[in-house]
Write a structure and sequence with these properties.
Blueprint lengths: L2 H7 L5 H4 L21 E5 L2 E4 L4 E4 L2 H4 L8 H13 L8 H13 L5 E5 L2 H16 L3 E5 L12 E2 L6 E2 L1 E2 L6 H4 L2 E4 L4 H11 L3 E6 L13 H14 L2 E5 L11 H6 L5 E5 L9 E5 L1 H4 L18 H17 L2 H21 L8 E2 L2 E2 L11 H6 L2 H13 L2 E2 L8 E2 L6 H18 L3
Parallel strand pairs: 3-16, 5-9, 5-10, 10-11, 11-12
Antiparallel strand pairs: 1-2, 2-3, 4-13, 6-8, 7-9, 12-13, 14-15, 15-17
Helix pairs in contact: 4-12, 5-12, 8-9, 13-16, 15-16
The structure holds 4'-deoxy-4'-aminopyridoxal-5'-phosphate.
The site of 4'-deoxy-4'-aminopyridoxal-5'-phosphate (PMP) has 16 residues, from α6.
Length: about 425
C-alpha cells in the first residue's frame, strides 16, 4: 500500500457511519430544530469548544449535570486523585459512604442511599422498591415528566383526565405500559379523580417536583401538597424525581424549596459532578426492603463508581461551602428578565418560566403552566431562535422540551452577552 492509501484507510469514519444517527442519545442529533449534531471537543467554565474550534457559551451544561461549569479545577483534581488510587473496584469504598452521607445531611427525607450508574436506573429501581414495599402494581405519573427510558416509563397518554398509558416506543409491551397511569401535571381536580378511581391499586406516584423535561414548569405548591396527602391516605408512596432539581435548586432540592417531603427521592446529574450517576434514597425502614437486607433486587457493576463519587463529593462540598444558590437565582432571573424585555421590544410573544438556574423559552402569548400549554408554543420560532443563537455562539438545548441550565461559571457578564445575542436573534425572528 502507498502512504496515501494507508492514510486513506485510517481516516476516521463519519459519526453517522458508526453511530446511529451520529449520536448516542436522540436529542443530540438536533433534529427537533432541523440542525446537525455538534461535535464537542473541550469545555471550560461556561464555554464549550467544538471539534472545529468554535467557542459557545454553553446553556446545555451536560443537560444540567455541570452546576460548577465545565472542568472545575477541584472536580478535576478529585477525579485525578481517585484515578491514581484505582478507577474501579466493584467493592464498597469510602467515596460511596462520604457521598451518601453528604446527601443524607442535605436532604432530611433521605436516611439511606443506593447509588446507580444513571438516573434511568435509579427511577426504575425506586419504582420497583415502591411496588415491592406496597405489594401493588400500578404507578401514577404525570404528563410531560421524564423519568428515564425504562419500559414502564416510556408511555404516552390516551384521552381523559387520568388514563392508563400506551407504549410510546416500539419494543415496549402494552401490558407493561398499561400499568402506568398518566395524569395532567399540576391539575388538582384530575389528581383527586385519579385517586378516587385508582387509589387502592397505586404503588406510588412519581413526578418531577419542578418539571424540566417539558420545558420548565413550576407547579403550585398546593398541587404537591395535595399529592402528598392523597398518596399518604391511600397507602401509596410519593417519589420525587429530583434528577434535575436535586442540589440545583438548593442543597435540599425542590423538596426543600417547596417544603413537601416525599417518601423516596431520585437523584442524578449534579450529584455526579459531570460523571455518570444516579441514586435513590429514603427512610431506613423503607430502603431496608432492598437486597441484601430485603427482597427487592437492585445491583450494578458500576453502582457507586469511585470516579463519580469523587466528582460528586467535590461538587457537593463546594456547593455547601459556597452556597451559590442565591447568586444562581439572581443570574437566572437576570437572563429571564433580559429575554422578556427583548421580546417585548420586538413584539415577539415570549414566555420564560424560570426558577433558580433553570429556564425555558416558549414562543407563546400566554403563560405556560401545563403540559397542554407547552404543546401550543410555536416550535418553528423556537427552532429559529435556537439555530440563530448557535450561529451567534450561544448553545441552548436543541428542543423546546428541555431546560437551559446556568452554572456558577455563568457570570453577569456572560448572561449579558447571551441577552445581547438573543436580542439580535429575536429581532430577526419576529418576521418568521
Ligand atoms: N429523571 C429526570 C427528571 C431526568 O431529567 C433524566 C434525564 N434527563 C432522567 C430521569 C434519566 O437520567 P439518565 O439520563 O441519567 O438516565
Amino acid at each position: 500500500m502507498t502512504i496515501a492509501a494507508t492514510r486513506r484507510a485510517h481516516r476516521p469514519p463519519r459519526a453517522d457511519q458508526v453511530l446511529v444517527g451520529g449520536v448516542n442519545s436522540p436529542v443530540r442529533a438536533f433534529r427537533a430544530v432541523g440542525g446537525e449534531p455538534l461535535h464537542a471537543s473541550r469545555g471550560r467554565g461556561a464555554v464549550l469548544t467544538d471539534a472545529r474550534g468554535r467557542r459557545f457559551v454553553d446553556l446545555i451544561m451536560g443537560w444540567g449535570a455541570l452546576i460548577l461549569g465545565h472542568s472545575h479545577p477541584q472536580v478535576v483534581a478529585a477525579v485525578r486523585g481517585q484515578l491514581s488510587r484505582g478507577s474501579h473496584f466493584g467493592l464498597t469504598h469510602a467515596g460511596e459512604v462520604a457521598l451518601a452521607d453528604a446527601i443524607a445531611r442535605a436532604m432530611p427525607s433521605v436516611e439511606q442511599v443506593r447509588f446507580t450508574a444513571s438516573g434511568t436506573e435509579a427511577c426504575m429501581s425506586a419504582i420497583r422498591l415502591a411496588r415491592g414495599a406496597t405489594g401493588r402494581c400500578t404507578i401514577l405519573t404525570f404528563e410531560g415528566c421524564y423519568h428515564g427510558h425504562s419500559d414502564g416509563l416510556l408511555v404516552k397518554r390516551g384521552s381523559g383526565l387520568a388514563t392508563l398509558g400506551l407504549a410510546a416506543s416500539a419494543g415496549v409491551p402494552e401490558p407493561i405500559a398499561a400499568q402506568t397511569l398518566i395524569a395532567p401535571y399540576g391539575d388538582v381536580d384530575a389528581l383527586e379523580q385519579a385517586f378516587r378511581d385508582h387509589g387502592p391499586q397505586l404503588a406510588c406516584a412519581i413526578l418531577e417536583p419542578v418539571a424540566a423535561n417539558t420545558g420548565v414548569i413550576v407547579p403550585q405548591r398546593h398541587f404537591l401538597k395535595r399529592l402528598r396527602e392523597l398518596t399518604s391516605r391511600h397507602g401509596a408512596l410519593l417519589i420525587f424525581d429530583e434528577v434535575v432539581t436535586g442540589f440545583r435548586l438548593g442543597l435540599g432540592g425542590a423538596q426543600g424549596l417547596l417544603r413537601v417531603r416525599p417518601d423516596l427521592t431520585v437523584l442524578g446529574k449534579v450529584i455526579g459532578g459531570g460523571l455518570p450517576i444516579g441514586a435513590f434514597g429514603g427512610p431506613r425502614a423503607l430502603m431496608r426492603e432492598l437486597a441484601p437486607e430485603g427482597r427487592v433486587y437492585h445491583a450494578g457493576t458500576f453502582a457507586g463508581h469511585p470516579l463519580s463519587m469523587a466528582a460528586g463529593l467535590a461538587t457537593l462540598r463546594l456547593l455547601r461551602r459556597a452556597q451559590p444558590y442565591s447568586r444562581l437565582e439572581a443570574c437566572g432571573s437576570r437572563l429571564a428578565e433580559g429575554l422578556r424585555a427583548a421580546a417585548q421590544e420586538w413584539q415577539v410573544p415570549l414566555q420564560v418560566p424560570q426558577i433558580g438556574s433553570m429556564l425555558t423559552v416558549f414562543f407563546a402569548a400566554s403563560p405556560v403552566a401545563s403540559f397542554a400549554d407547552t404543546q401550543r408554543a410555536d416550535r418553528g420560532r423556537f427552532a429559529a431562535f435556537a439555530n440563530g443563537l448557535r450561529a451567534a455562539g450561544v448553545l441552548i438545548p436543541p428542543s423546546q422540551f428541555e431546560a437551559m441550565f446556568l452554572s456558577v461559571a455563568h457570570t453577569e457578564r456572560v448572561i449579558d452577552r447571551i441577552i445581547e445575542q438573543s436580542v439580535a436573534v429575536l429581532r430577526r425572528i419576529r418576521r418568521v
